[in-house]
Amino acid sequence: MASTTPRKLLAMFTFICIALLLSSSWVQFAEANVCQRPSKTWSGPCLNTKGCKDQCIRLESAIFGACHSLTCYCYFNCT
């Protein structure tokens, strides 16, 4: 029994190290710099998120768009 304990500890240590490496790469992805600003081309109240998104991408070179508080917001990669 004593010989299996170091193997179990090594396996747990390896698993924890791999989990930490994977989680740090996800954190970097989640912290991508994305800036938002009201659309410069949308007019009127924003009631259609799909339309807002399509217009932001097509006309303003945004990566995404969405309606918030009746305003169309476009999202860009911050530089």
From TrEMBL:
Residues 1-32 form the signal peptide. SMART domains: Knot1. Keywords: Antimicrobial, Disulfide bond, Fungicide, Signal. Residues 34-78 form the Knottins-like domain. SUPFAM superfamilies: Scorpion toxin-like (SSF57095). Pfam families: Gamma-thionin. The keyword Thylakoid does not apply. The keyword Iron does not apply. Transmembrane segments: none annotated. This is Knottins-like domain-containing protein. It comes from Stylosanthes scabra. The lineage of its organism: Eukaryota, Viridiplantae, Streptophyta, Embryophyta, Tracheophyta.
